[in-house]
Amino acid sequence: MVTVSRIVEKMVKDNPSLEIALSKDLINYSKLARYLRQEVEKETGAKVNDSAIVVALKRIKERAEKLYEQRAVFQAQEITTNSDLMEITVVHSHSVPRIVQDIYELDEVKKGSTANITHGNKQTTFIFSEKLEKKVRSLLEGEEIISEIKNVSQISIGFSEEMFKTPGFIVYTLKELSWHNINIMEIISTYTELIIIIKDEDFVKAYKILRSVLFK
User: Fold this and answer.
1) At what angle do helices 50-69 and 169-179 cross, to 10 degrees?
2) pTM value?
3) Which of 11, 40, 85, 147 could cysteine-pair with 89, CB 3.0–4.6 Å?
4) Distance in angstroms (rounded) separating the CA atoms of residues 159 and 164
């Protein structure tokens, strides 16, 4: 049986800004409960008291608060940026691995130009310096392009192995951006590096937020 607690928890998780607001004690529980009640009743198929929703919200607040209590230990070691990028996503095909290799063999990439490639089960996304557009398009000729986005920026966060082993570091970082209405287009994560792809228009704001929360 689906409980009120589980339904409310899912609703909050589906709205990261709401979870952050709860953790910061910025929300009136009773008002939020009344706002959520109709959807909760729809999910349960029964009448639900506001008090039951309030109890669930308070439990979520306690868990979220613990995450944000760790704020002081969430530290990055470096942050680097790159702009004048663009993104092209194609349907994955048998020729994509060869194209990836060819891109990495470009002289500009060998000399430091950005080229990040992310593989999904059905799609592959290429993020690269706009100055490489002509060459990349030539390599992608014949591939099924499903998305093209220009005016893209990249923020790379380097962190220690200790942060890698600290639960909540990446979630905390991404939720801070979500809280400030920053749209994250892509996320690339390696062992001790987190790369966030955003639109140029959000770059300055995102950079300032990350500097303020990860470098104390």
Assistant:
1) 120
2) 0.70
3) 147
4) 7
Poorest-pLDDT segment among 56-60, 71-75, 136-140, 162-166:
71-75
**Are residues 179 and 117 part of one domain?**
yes
- Shared-domain flag, residues 23 and 96: no
- H/E stretch holding 51 reads helix 50-69
**131 belongs to a structural domain:** yes
- pLDDT tens for residues 84-130? 999 999 999 999 999 999 999 999 999 999 999 999 999 999 999 99
193-199 vs 186-189, strand pairing mode: antiparallel
Read off the CATH number of the domain in which 82 is found.
3.30.2130.10
Q: How far is CA 212 from the centre of its chain?
A: 18
Range of the domain at 54: 4-68
Q: In whole angstroms, how far apart are CA 67 and each of 42, 57, 149, 162?
A: 30, 16, 34, 16
The pLDDT of 50-66, averaged and rounded, is 86
Q: Please say whether the dihedral angle defined by the alpha carbons of residues 31, 36, 38 and 41, taken in this order, is positive or negative.
A: negative
Number of domains in the chain: 2
- 45 DSSP assignment: T
